[in-house]
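Model: Ready when you are.
Researcher: Fold this.
Model:
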Amino acid sequence: MKTLGIDVGSSSVKVALMDVQSGDCVASVTLPPTELPIEAVQSGWAEQDPAMWWEYVCKGIVQLAQQYDMREVAAIGISYQMHGLVCVDKEGKALRKSIIWCDSRAVAIGAQAFDAIGHDKCLAQTLNSPSNFTASKLAWVKEHEPEIFRKIHKFMLPGDYIAYMLSGEMSTTVGGLSEQILWDFKNNDKANFVADYYGIPDAYIPKFYPSLGIQAHTNEATERLLGIKKGTPLSYRAGDQPNNAFSLNVLDVGDVAATGGTSGVVYGVTDRPQADKLSRVNPFLHVNHSTEKPRLGLLLCINGTGILNAWIKRLCASEISYDEANALCLPVSAGSEGLVMLPFGNGAERMLENRFTGAEIIGIDLNRHTRAHVLRATQEGIAFAFRYGLDIMREMGVRPQVIRAGRANLFLSAIFRTTLSTICNVSIELYNTDGALGAARGAALGAGFYKNREEAFTSLKKHETIQPDPAIKAALEESYRKWKEELTARLSKNNER
């Protein structure tokens, strides 16, 4: 018996087949060979075509089908980039390109809603400001594209759209509603007061299900197109960060996961419905949440991590691999000899109270610094951003001794993971999993193929543990002090505008 995991990111689409009995990944495909395009018609905007995601989902499954019988797929799980907006008409056709997670156009709209609805009410019931999340993005469409808004039949998240394309059923999850800032944590239901303020008709909001459990079934079109039997259950759906945590078995209070893909995230599990008054870190419902046993994920997101690392590599070291670029940095001492990188160039940062400062390289010495210094300072600057955000999470009671991560993306770099472990004073555990495999595992658990969680994660194996390096701690702390001073200065200037 096999399950299929689909992971729709902003950089790539990955599909994986998992053998349920062993829990091992049988095969996986990542598309396209280069990164998915993100359209930015104006500064701070970011859009992708939902049809592009579906095209690569189909291509990936078709590639798997060349070696494996898709009729053996017994359940499907979906992971997706969070907070994106997909608007569809009655025929299920996307009315416009998706306004994705790193798009900043709705910041002012969310701030106005926060003031109008009331800070206390929002923080008590949605645990967040409406901010730049999905409901605010839809409000932007209502204000600036009223002709499109009037044609909307339902609006969905990226993963909801893929589930619809597989099943013909329009739906979302309770976790999805919470990430759209349309979940009322106090009343355990839709946050109608947010939708009412924005003028979003209740009919626009799809029906919703728990993240774990059967939500829909594949239709005849999917069987004809992809060979997956009609009636195959879709039994797991989660945003990429809750799914990353799930894939690492981060499900208990106090557990912490991290990822370093296009964006960087620290995700800590709590049972306390507590808001950050400045909405710099954001609580959402976790995949295993229930009314009787609350589980919330406290999410710190840094937009400009992997995307910055890739951008710098293209500029400085396009002719060599990532491994070779990382090796190039090794002779450079910790702290990059005074070179400092602020990694905030991919839209408004929630961690910085929805401000956009841009990315900067500071302190360049033309007689001393080389491309190796720039490459190392980039990874250190990203690790410093993690430290800055983790300190906010610590103020809210999340104080990890261990952070779990998949052995992928930035965590493949010894420089990054050692810098992060040392500057945050935590152990880092790396595991043999990723988003698509996590979604496949979630599908098996949600469909009841595993008796319990323990059985589901029997095959999860730890690759290695990274400990803080005392030999570089002093240098990194001094570099972080300079980094934080530079960031504080820019935030002060931003406030004066």
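Researcher: Now this one.
Model:
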Amino acid sequence: MGNTAVEKDIYSKIDEAIGQFHFEGKLIDKTPYGSGHINDTFLLRFSLPDGSVKKQILQRVNRIVFKNPVEVMENIQGVTTFLRKKIIENGGDPDRETLNLRPAKDGKCYYLDADGDYWRSFGFIEGATCYDQVEKEEHFYQSAVAFGNFQCLLAEYPASALHETIAGFHDTASRFETFCQAVKDDVCGRAAGVKDEIRFVMEHQEIAHVFGDLQKAGKLPLRVTHNDTKLNNIMLDDQTGKAICVIDLDTVMPGLAMNDFGDSIRFGASTAAEDEKDLSKVSCSMELFELYAKGFLEGCAGSLTDLEVSLLPMGAKVMTYECGMRFLTDYLQGDTYFKIHRENHNLDRCRTQFKLVADMEEKWYIMEDIIKKAGS
């Protein structure tokens, strides 16, 4: 969970929002919290009558990014309520192993202020930390277990009941059509300079249709997917180092298990940064792939079908191809979606993704063998 740059007048709005939730104790202070870039996040500290201090998280939802905040909140409320029930059934600690929404005074899971901003509050999880970067391989493994367990706990949740809060988020075939239109329109006159990259997308267009075709044939179950499976969306226990909770549920939607797995591999198993210019440094680490596959399938605990398990390597390939294609599309359209910090930034990003796809293809049989062993 994170905060954007805090506006000068937001503190007056915070006090209004705080007054609309049932918090225990007396407010001690409120401070910006976290390293995220989407929502405005604050840590609230309250003193209780017994002298202890209780912490809460308060967030203002980014209405620019999330066009339908009510649907986002309904998804989060439905999933966390279900998770809490499952965790209790399994003998776990529901106050630490899932996010817990604090209802507003009107009974809703959010507060809508006079300016049209949506506020929400979660209980603070004590004794646990989020890491922005993988400091040791165990962190990557623990994130895999956590996201796999997320799939397992939600295996019986009716995914179709969730709102698709970002339409076509991982509709790779639709992304391909958008790309083709961007090439045709060539609004910035950049297509002539990226013929090799365009050719790569076109020569691999079958990747864009693999999962969609299988879904249409009824061979892939719709799952509850997180859709942002980065390490910093996992809380690790400070004492044990074990993953205890999946956070940042804003993008929870109906989807495919392979996409969540694949996005983790795309980012976490790469040997270089997403925008590395020197492509000789870019490859998919089979050691990290194996580590993540082992943890993910351990966490899934048999909740995936045999076909889903066998398609995990394809998940990595599809997500990497899709992301590279999106970077190239944005480059062709004038860098209007992804933030750039230098000339050709999106082009550099797309090239790393395509290099990863090519590297995965060279290591395909190794990846399949790793999954077979991890799933056996």
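Researcher: Key takeaway?
Model: The chain has 13 helices and ten strands.
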